[in-house]
Amino acid sequence: MELSGLNTVIIGSGIGGLAAGALLASRGALVTVLEAQGYPGGCAATFARQGYRFDAGATVGCGFHPGGPMDMLGRELGITWPVRQETVAWRYCHGSLTLDLDRQGSGVLERFPESRAFWQEQSVLSALLWKLAAGGLPWPPASIADLALLLRKGFSGFPGTSRLLHFAAKTAYEWLVEHRLETNAEFMRFIDAQLLISAQATSREANAVNAAIALDLPFSGAWHIEGGIGRISEQLALSIEQHGGTVLYRERVERMHTIRRQVFGVETSGGLSLAADLFLANLTPASLALLAGISSDSPLLRQKGPVHRWGTVTLYLGLDAAIAAGAGERHLQIIGQSGNPGEGNSIFASFSMPGEEGRAPRGCAAVTVSTHSRPEPWFAAVGKSREEYLRLKSTYIDKMLDLLALHIPGLREGIRFLEAGTPLTWERYTGRHRGYVGGYPQTSLFDVRDPATGFDNMLLVGDSVFPGQSLPGVVTGARRVVELAGRGVGSR
Ligand SMILES: Cc1cc2nc3c(=O)[nH]c(=O)nc-3n(C[C@H](O)[C@H](O)[C@H](O)COP(=O)(O)OP(=O)(O)OC[C@H]3O[C@@H](n4cnc5c(N)ncnc54)[C@H](O)[C@@H]3O)c2cc1C
Questions:
Q1: CB 327 within 8 A of CB 407
Q2: H or E segment and range at residue 198
Q3: Ligand 1, from 35, 43, 71, 458: best to mutate by most atoms within 8 Å of Cβ?
Q4: How would you class 378 by CB atoms within 10 Å of its CB: exposed for 0-12, middle for 13-18, buried for 19 or more?
Q5: For residue 469, what pLDDT is reported?
Q6: How far is the CA of 229 from the centre of ligand 1 (A)?
Q7: What is the share, in percent, of the chain residues with pLDDT greater than 70?
Q8: What is the number of alpha carbons within 13 Å of residue 17 lying toward its C-beta?
Q9: Pocket of ligand 1 contains residue 86 by CB under 6 Å
Q10: In terms of Cα–Cα distance, which of 348, 312, 357 is closest to 330?
Q11: From CA 12, how far away is CA 252, in angstroms rounded?
């Protein structure tokens, strides 16, 4: 189908909505993005507060390696990303164990030499997956043409792709058992911590193929984004405008007009009413259901698909720069001595660069700290009383600061600014129902959601659809949406 002149309205300017919008606009579609907030990026935004610019959620740039999804997107749109490769992706800390995750993986191999064969296999698998995903992966297949393309890709990757079948139905844990690593508690803790942040599930549940690519993130390289991760969405919004599109801020879509399987138009908080041929919802399925006024298990949302499981608690710290320098690396992943991962028992902390333009007042650094947290107890607490909610919030703040203080001497004395976000904050800020963030748990290659919504002219984009979370993940999903739109799927 001709994309040129295709009138497209996108609800939300997260990375997925913007990447799809920029690709569509560059191919001649008439794109309008409606964003509830005053700036783009959603979970990957950078926001301003009292002289600081804090990364809201995402902090690590990945997928910028040559041929990676971000690299390819930039080339296609003529964008030079403001990125610089980090020597160490992040530093993993548990008790006295410190591992710097660099591209060579040397620290991990030195500490866990018994895992060498596992990493060799992981590297072969992930190289194969990156190759298969290059230029888009028609998964889950939506047509005979998709199946044919998958077969073509599969055969061209042969015999490697036959190896994939061996892993497709396994969990990461079963894969680790094959390497007799499951009894190595320190190694398993390390793997689970990596999988939780990049696959939203630990080894017992994460699918082995998903785990291979999730574990590859630090080894395929991490990039620092000059000025904050929000620069990526700002560049994408600019690209849409340069191709004749529009990105409108403070325009929350509050109403959808539908008749049976057609969306006719949307209305915004600012009083706009817009009709379109194609609508893209950069929303979670639950948020789309609420907007459409249907139940989230309505056949109109068609597929069951995996559901988001995690929310987050985030801290935004303005820190004395001399104290922040004690971190030693730009990103620290700190695991506490006890307890399951998440819930303040493990944190990921990211620091602005010394002297980085516009990120913090002179002599200070902007720091984002996050931990996985189940949203349900937060909503239960606020359901009881505001005091109960504030008590829970203050417990998490203390726990997270205590963990960070283990690796940053003088932390508490160095704090110049502190704000915290809970799943309630995240719900309000991103419009994601119940504040579920970070993509769906990658427990199966087959139980995944494609962009179809059940409305004939609306597609989903973002980290709820395959392949899920992260900048490269949602950009890969956005490509799929554009490809489907080009075939007339999702258009009136
Ligand atoms: C704490 C945290 C840390 C993370 N760390 C990393 C990382 O280091 N690296 C990485 O690559 N990824 C990371 N991720 C994941 C990554 O940020 C997300 O997967 C990705 O940004 C999600 O993009 P999305 O397209 O789904 O849109 P979202 O980020 O969900 O954005 C949706 C947008 O839609 C807008 N919106 C919602 N409802 C409406 C409405 N009704 N009308 C108008 N606008 C609306 C919202 O305001 C928002 O701007 C992290 C995520 C979190 C939460």
A1: yes
A2: helix 185-199
A3: 43
A4: buried
A5: 86
A6: 12
A7: 92
A8: 32
A9: no
A10: 348
A11: 8
- Asked whether the beta carbons of 374 and 309 are under 8 A apart, the reply is yes
Global pTM exceeds 0.85: yes
Would you tell me how many other CB atoms lie within 10 Å of the CB of residue 383? 9
pLDDT bin (cut points 50, 70, 90) of residue 106 is confident
Show the tokens assigned to 44.
Answer: 């990957």
The count of other CB atoms within 10 Å of the CB of residue 426 is: 27
Burial of residue 158 (number of CB atoms within 10 Å: 0-12, 13-18, 19+): exposed
How far is it, in rounded angstroms, from Cα 123 to Cα 134?
16
CA 112 – CA 92 distance, rounded (Å):
14
* pLDDT tens readout for residues 345-389: 999 999 999 888 899 999 999 999 999 999 999 999 999 999 999
**pLDDT tier, 291 (very low <50, low <70, confident <90, very high otherwise):** very high
- 20 in Cβ contact with 478 (< 8 Å): yes
Lookup result for tokens 């001497």: 409
Residue-level length of the chain: 492
